[in-house]
């Protein structure tokens, strides 16, 4: 709370929101949360989103009030509310699995579900629509995101050498099982995220952003963005997460060489694939076996992971 208020007091609202959301995700502790009755668990995600949203209501209320989302987003948010009500109304039976008793979901928990979705889905979406509607604001967001990746570089390199220890050194506990730390004879960094895959995907995203900034001839921390992008890719290649590295390697040329219109089409195609993936898997229309065989040609660990 004090950090959030200080950030809003010292910088523009859109920069404050970007800073709090990005750095909350990469620095706050995993697993731990505050349990408050009738409220969703106050963990790193809900805290970061909440303390980006509620101070914004004070600092830029007029701008938020003028924001119009359109009918489709409100329809989708309404569907989320309906699903939350359904989750509560259709899970009122106690389950016994072996010796474990899973209590029934009480009706008032529907309010908790809705509050959680408000913080994790509506708040960041609304802030994005309200505060990042100009070119300069989007540029600031990308720079803040990319700088976070640069700050993670030495932390990732440290854990590559000494194993994932930072979360334990700072917060006093390991955030994931040690069984998934080793890969290809080396350590997979986790830093302050829940898993090495999360760190790798974050670094891949930062690398793609850096390539985009480089193409726009922007700088990151007063350094040309292209060397930053290359450094992020090199460290990503050392992080023992082949999937994230392949994603960055495949889409970096798209960012670097294609037009914005083509990039939008590629992004839309990926979005459609993600949306229909459950149906494709259910009817066995997705080439799952072929992909697993390709991964198995690399190693059994890769096949098991994919």
Q: How helix-rich are the residues, as a percent range? A: 55-70%
Rounded to an integer in angstroms, the radius of gyration calculated over CA atoms is 21 Å
Record field, number of beta strands: 6
**Strands in their spatial order, largest beta sheet:** 1-2
Q: Let me know the average pLDDT.
A: 91
- Ends apart, CA distance between termini: 39 Å
Order of helices and strands: HHHHHEEHHHEEHEEHHHHH
Largest sheet: 2 strands, antiparallel
Q: What is the overall shape?
A: globular
SS content category: mainly alpha
| Spans where pLDDT lies below 50 across 5 or more residues | none
The number of helices is 14
Strand content: under 5%
Verbal overview:
The protein starts with a helix and ends with a helix. It has helices at residues 2-10, 13-27, 44-59, 61-65, 71-89, 109-131, 135-162, 166-171, 196-215, 225-237, 242-257, 260-282, 288-298, 300-305, and strands spanning 95-97, 100-102, 182-183, 186-187, 219-220, 223-224. 69% of the residues lie in helices and 5% in strands. It is mostly helical. It is globular and about 50 Å long. β1 (95-97) and β2 (100-102) form a beta hairpin. The strands form 3 sheets. It has a two-stranded antiparallel sheet with strand order 1-2. A two-stranded antiparallel sheet has the order 3-4. The chain contains 14 helices and 6 strands. α2 (13-27) runs antiparallel to α3 (44-59) and α7 crosses α9 (196-215).
